[in-house]
C-alpha cells in the first residue's frame, strides 16, 4: 500500500475507534451502575444503618450494640454455627463426591461417561423447590424409602428431614453440577501425556493423582469450593424447607427475624455478618483467580 | 545387554480399526531402530504398546527374554520421551528429573548426584532450579530426554521427539541424541515420520505402512534398494513411472528404457539424482520448472502423457523452462506386484 493510500485510511480508522468508544463505555456502564445501585449501595446502606444509629436523645453516632447482641445471644451463635457446620460438611461432601465424578468424566472412554455427565449436570435444571419436594417424598417420614423398607419387613429409617442433615443432602445435590463442571474444566489442563510420563517413570495411579493431577487442579478445587460455599452459606430455600426449626441457617434466620419477629435492625445485622463471612470466602476465589493469572 | 523382541504383535482398536497387524521386530543391544511411516501407519501405536500405554490385541513383547506384554507402564524397564515433552509444569527441572528416583526411594544424596550427572549429559548443568516454562523448546526436549535417561531404562522409546521444534534445532538435537545414545549404548526405538531423521540417526529403519512392516534394513539399503514401490516413493524423492515391458524394453509415458525382465506391466523407479538430461529437439520430456538451490538445481519435467518427474542437475543454468530434453536414467529399479523385480 502506498503512503498516500495509508494516509487516506488513517483518519477513517481513528474515527471508527472514536465512535466505538461511547458504545463500549455504555455497555460497561449499564451493568456497573446496576451493580452499584442494587448491590453495592444496599451493602453500604446496611452496614451504615447497623452501626450509625440514633441514641435515646436522637443524636446519631457509632453504635455496635446490634452486633454485640448477635455475638452474645446463644440462639444467634447457634444459628451461625449450624450455618458454618452445614457449609463445611457440604464442601467436604462436594469434594468427596464430585472429584471422583470429574476424574471419571475426564479419563474414562466410551459412551458411559456421556450418561454420567448428563446425570451429574441434571440437578442444575431442577428448581430447589422441586428438589425439596422430591426429597420429602423419598426420604421424608413414610416416604418411598420407608415404604420399600416396610414392604420387606425392615424398620423405618431415621429420616434426615427437618434435621441438619436435610439441608446438607439437598445443598450437596444442588451444587454437584457447578462443582463437577469447574473441576472438569481444571482437569482439562492436565495433559494425557503428562500423566503417561508419570506412569512411565514408575508412578502408580494414586501417585499420579497426588503428585501430578492434584497440583494442577488445586486452583480449580479452590474455585469450585469458593463458589459452592458462597451459595451454601447464604442459601434459603432448601434450609427453610428441609432444615430444623431451631437452630436454623442464616438464610431462614434473617427472613424470620425480618418478617415474623419484625426486627429489621437485627435482620440487617445478621445480613451484614453473613456478608462478612461470604466476603472472606470470596477472597479465596479472588486469590485463586489472581494466582492463576500470574501463572 | 538389553534386547527388545516384538513377536506377531497386533492391535485392533474398538470399532475394528486395525492399527498394527502381525508385526515382528528384534532390536539388538545398543541398537537404534527407527519406525518410519506416514500418519496412521501404526508406528506410534507400536511404540505405545512397547511402553505399556496400549495393550496388544495379540502377540508378545519381551525385553531380555522377560515377557512384559501385560505389564503396566510403571512396571516396565522402558523410558519414553514424548512428542510434546510432557514436562510437569508445577515442578522445576530438578524435581521433574528427581520424581522417578524419589518413587524408587533412593537416598536424597544419590538422587542429587544422578540428576546433576544427567543434566550435565544433556548439556543443561545448572538448570535444575529453572521452571519448565522458562526453558526454550530445545531445552525442554532435553529435560524430557534427561528425565527418561536418569532412570537408566533398558529400552529408550522416542515418540517423534523433535516434531515440535524448528528445522535448525531439530538437526542439532538429533545429532546430540544420537551421540548420547551411542555413548550410553542404550537400546532405542525411535518413531518419526521424517525420513531425514531416520536416515541420519538409525542403525536400522523399519518402514511401516498400514500397520505392517514394508522393509527393515540399514538406512543406506532402504534408500538405495527399496523392496516395494511404497518404500521407494516414501524414502527420499523417487520418480515412479508405470508402463509395460516387452522384449527387455520398458515403455511408459514416452520413456523407453532397457529393462531385462520378463514381459508384463512394471513400475520404473528412478531417483532424481540418477536422471541425466540432454537437450534435444524432440526429446521425451519438456521442462516445466527449474528450481535453483545454489548447490544444485531441481528440474520438473512433463513426460508425454503429462506424468511429472524430477531430475537433479548440477548446473541448472544450462537449462530453460519449456525446453525439450531427453532423459537418461543411470540407475533404476523396477517393481511388479508390489515387489522389486530389477535393480541396476
Structure description:
- The complex is a heterodimer of chains A (295) and B (344).
- With 295 residues, chain A is an all-alpha fold.
- Helices cover 78% and strands 2% of the residues of chain A.
- The model of chain A is unreliable at 1-8 (pLDDT under 50).
- In chain A, strands 1-2 form a two-stranded antiparallel sheet.
- Chain A has helices at 3-51, 65-72, 74-107, 112-121, 128-139, 144-151, 165-187, 192-200, 205-233, 237-242, 250-259, 264-294, and strands at residues 52-54, 60-62.
- In chain A, α1 packs antiparallel against α12, α3 (74-107) packs antiparallel against α4 and α9 (205-233) runs antiparallel to α12 (264-294).
- In chain B, α2 (93-103) packs across α3 (108-121).
- In chain B, 40% of the residues are buried.
- The mean pLDDT of chain B is 91.
CATH architecture of the largest domain in chain A: Orthogonal Bundle
Provide the helix percentage of chain B: 10-25%
Number of strands of chain A: 2
- Gyration radius from CA atoms of chain A, angstroms: 26 Å
Q: Can you tell me the overall shape of chain A?
A: globular
Number of strands of chain B: 21
Q: Please trace the helix and strand order of chain B, writing H or E for each element.
A: EEEHEEEHHHEHEHEEHHEEEEEEEEEEE
- At the fold tier of CATH, the topology name of the largest domain in chain A is MetI-like fold
Strand content of chain B: 35-45%
Widest sheet, order of strands of chain A? 1-2
What secondary-structure arrangement, pairings included, does this model have?
The complex is a heterodimer of chains A (295) and B (344).
Chain A: H1 3-51, E1 52-54, E2 60-62, H2 65-72, H3 74-107, H4 112-121, H5 128-139, H6 144-151, H7 165-187, H8 192-200, H9 205-233, H10 237-242, H11 250-259, H12 264-294
Antiparallel strand pairs in A: 1-2
Helix pairs in contact in A: 1-12, 3-4, 3-7, 3-9, 7-9, 8-9, 9-12, 11-12
Chain B: E1 4-12, E2 18-27, E3 32-36, H1 43-51, E4 58-63, E5 66-67, E6 78-81, H2 93-103, H3 108-121, H4 137-149, E7 155-159, H5 167-184, E8 187-192, H6 195-201, E9 204-209, E10 212-217, H7 219-224, H8 229-234, E11 239-246, E12 249-252, E13 255-258, E14 264-270, E15 275-279, E16 285-292, E17 297-303, E18 308-313, E19 324-329, E20 333-336, E21 339-343
Parallel strand pairs in B: 3-8, 3-9, 6-7, 7-8
Antiparallel strand pairs in B: 1-2, 1-4, 4-5, 9-10, 11-12, 11-14, 12-13, 14-20, 15-19, 16-17, 16-19, 17-18, 20-21
